[in-house]
Amino acid sequence: MSLITPHGGKLVNRILEGEAAKSVAATAGSYKSVTLSPREQFDLEMIAIGAFSPVTGFMGRADFTNVCKEMRLANGTVWPIPVTFCPPDDVAATIREGPAFRYHDRPREVPA
């Protein structure tokens, strides 16, 4: 039995297992810690398990702009809702593109 082709042609799986999970867990303590809102926690879980395929993470500027204007990702794939990380202004001022983050929920449990 074959499966239908995932939306966008690619099924995303961002769940780390085995050695990859151990490696990230060993270094995660050195990453900047960022608190997620309940909506962002939900979005992160949906990204991780592939429910938002082909989206692979919170949207960058190009995808966000195109989704808001055209209801499509920057690559043209139909996508009607922005998937964003919206930290408070004081946190946003310290974030730069590139470095890894350690996301956590309110009780500081690390969901991903």
Write the layout of secondary structure elements.
Layout: H1 18-27, E1 32-35, H2 38-49, H3 61-70, H4 89-92, E2 101-104
Parallel strand pairs: 1-2
Give structural notes.
This protein has 112 residues and is mostly helical. Helices cover 32% and strands 7% of the residues. The chain contains 4 helices and 2 strands. It has a two-stranded parallel sheet. The mean pLDDT is 89.
Put the structure in a nutshell.
It is built from 4 helices and 2 strands.
Defining traits:
112 residues; mainly alpha; two-stranded parallel ribbon; 4 helices; 2 strands
Major β-sheet strand ordering:
1-2
Number of beta-strand segments: 2
> What characteristic shape results from the CA principal axes?
globular
* Terminal Cα span: 32 Å
List the quaternary state of the chains: single chain
- As residue ranges, the low-confidence spans are none
Q: What is the overall number of helices? A: 4
Which structural class do you get from the secondary structure elements? Answer: mainly alpha
Which percent range fits the helix content? 25-40%
Query: Would you list the SSEs in sequence order as H and E?
Result: HEHHHE
Instruction: Give the averaged pLDDT, no decimals.
Output: 89
Provide the gyration radius in Å.
15 Å
Estimate what percentage of residues fall within beta strands.
5-15%
How many strands, what sense, and barrel or not for the largest sheet? 2 strands, parallel
